[in-house]
From TrEMBL:
Source superkingdom: Bacteria
InterPro entries: Nitroreductase (IPR029479), Nitroreductase-like (IPR000415)
Coiled coil: none
Protein name (database record): Nitroreductase
Segments forming domain Nitroreductase: 14-203
A Pfam family per the record: Nitroreductase
UniProt key word Cytoplasm: no
Keyword DNA-binding included in the entry's annotation: no
Amino acid sequence: MGGNPDQKYDEVVLGRRSIRGYLDKPVPRELIEEIIGMAMRSPTSMNTQPWHFHVITGEPLDRIRKGNTENILAGVPDSREFRRGQPFEGKHRERQVGCAIQLFEAMGIERDDKEKRQDWVLRGFRQFDAPVCVIVTYDKELSGSDDTPFDCGAVTTALVNAAWSRGLGCVINSQGIMQSPVVREHAGIPDDQVIMKAVAMGWPDPDFPANAVKITRRSVDEAANFVGF
């Protein structure tokens, strides 16, 4: 599972999946630097390059896991720093639920098994127990620009694809940054940054059932409207 530098672009894009279980194996800093360098070739509005990457591992990451988990279990309100919007409804809610069903079936989590369901949720707050977490932030002075989070989404997609091409797996998640004061403190993120997303990163565990799940995607016919062809 994962990729290698000889993969073609199609193989990376079509083979990549979200990885939620990792081997207890460190990731070399040099490899992460290479991956970030590749990701930063992604398009950016008017060359603003608003993104920053805070790469955390070891004891600081353990402190974030602990603080996130303790806060959520204590009922501390969500403090994520980007707009969440309203809860999903209709077809968007159906897709969200469909993803959960696929993952729960793979993990053998029954609908009424509250303990296992809670443990699954807490994995997100623990950054899925990955050896590395990359927090993507952007310059606060650009707040209010829709181009800025769009650019951060583009660079994050490039990041996970570049990681996959080098044999690493990732999962983009929001749970890991819901308790933003915890993340900001232990990752040393300055006040002039807005915390956008978390990316868990590491070597995929081939025996973790959820890692084999490829979430269903809409067809091109359903998603695209061609005009003038």
